[in-house]
């Protein structure tokens, strides 16, 4: 049955006729992912810097946030954020709920990426920068972050790719992302069927987004390492 669907001319023709559905899902997923990535980076940088702070309160905030978010499922966080607000009388859009949930969830992982990268730099670098009169922002911008970028980059891109794939979780609250619209297509009264071609197309579209990012990260990391060797 599966192989028959893959080679079914009629099924592929149906996919082509409803290509706008897949294009819409692709664009919605891309929009959700881009805004979610920006949010996760902002949260990651702020919470990550808190984790490297000498202030105990900031470090405590970092640990509470990271441990709570990382040790609870994204689906649970998404449902809590969307349904609890809805039942409380605060109706939010599915897109907004998805963006916030993805940003908050992956922000915790981004925070650990930034914290680990910054912590990997020898303390002597911080002390030398301080002795030269650099303030905190200048130390980070000119001294610490340029050195830690090659450590931060690979896991950061992995989180970006994971965030893009996790947009599929919006399906649980009836989103209009790629997975949701693909499911609606294969179960629709007028478009039902064509399971194999529909999910193959869905997978290809995710691959189109994620593979270039992974490749770019690998190339960028290699170039940074070559610069270190040449230096």
UniProtKB/TrEMBL annotation:
GO molecular function: transmembrane transporter activity
Protein topology in the membrane: Multi-pass membrane protein
Ranges in coiled-coil conformation: none
GO cellular component, one term: ATP-binding cassette (ABC) transporter complex
Entry-linked InterPro entries: AA_ABC_transptr_permease_3TM, ArtM/GltK/GlnP/TcyL/YhdX-like, MetI-like, MetI-like_sf
Tagged with keyword Cell membrane: yes
Main localization, broad class: membrane
Transmembrane regions: 33-52, 198-220
BP GO annotations: amino acid transport
Chain ranges of the ABC transmembrane type-1 domain: 26-217
Protein localization: Cell membrane
Keyword line: Amino-acid transport, Cell membrane, Membrane, Transmembrane, Transmembrane helix, Transport
CDD domains: TM_PBP2
Database matches in NCBIfam families: HEQRo_perm_3TM (TIGR01726)
Family in the record: Belongs to the binding-protein-dependent transport system permease family. HisMQ subfamily.
This protein's name: Arginine transport system permease protein ArtQ
Organism: Megamonas hypermegale
């Amino acid at each position: 049955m599966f192989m028959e669907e893959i080679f079914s001319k009629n099924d592929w023709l149906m996919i082509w006729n409803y290509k706008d559905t897949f294009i819409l899902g692709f664009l919605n997923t891309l929009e959700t992912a881009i805004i979610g990535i920006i949010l996760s980076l902002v949260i990651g940088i702020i919470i990550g810097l808190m984790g490297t702070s000498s202030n105990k309160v900031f470090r405590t905030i970092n640990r509470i946030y990271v441990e709570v978010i990382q040790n609870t499922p994204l689906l649970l966080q998404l449902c809590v954020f969307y349904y609890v607000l809805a039942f409380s009388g605060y109706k939010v859009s599915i897109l907004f709920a998805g963006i916030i949930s993805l940003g908050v969830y992956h922000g915790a992982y981004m925070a650990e990426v930034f914290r680990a990268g910054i912590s990997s730099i020898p303390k002597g670098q911080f002390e030398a920068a301080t002795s030269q009169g650099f303030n905190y922002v200048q130390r980070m911008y000119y001294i610490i972050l340029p050195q830690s970028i090659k450590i931060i980059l690979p896991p950061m891109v992995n989180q970006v790719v994971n965030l893009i794939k996790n947009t599929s979780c919006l399906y649980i609250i009836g989103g209009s992302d790629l997975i949701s619209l693909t499911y609606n297509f294969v179960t629709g009264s007028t478009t039902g069927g064509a399971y194999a071609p529909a999910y193959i197309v869905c997978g290809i579209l995710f691959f189109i987004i994620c593979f270039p990012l992974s490749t770019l990260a690998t190339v960028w990391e290699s170039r940074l390492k070559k610069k270190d060797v040449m230096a």
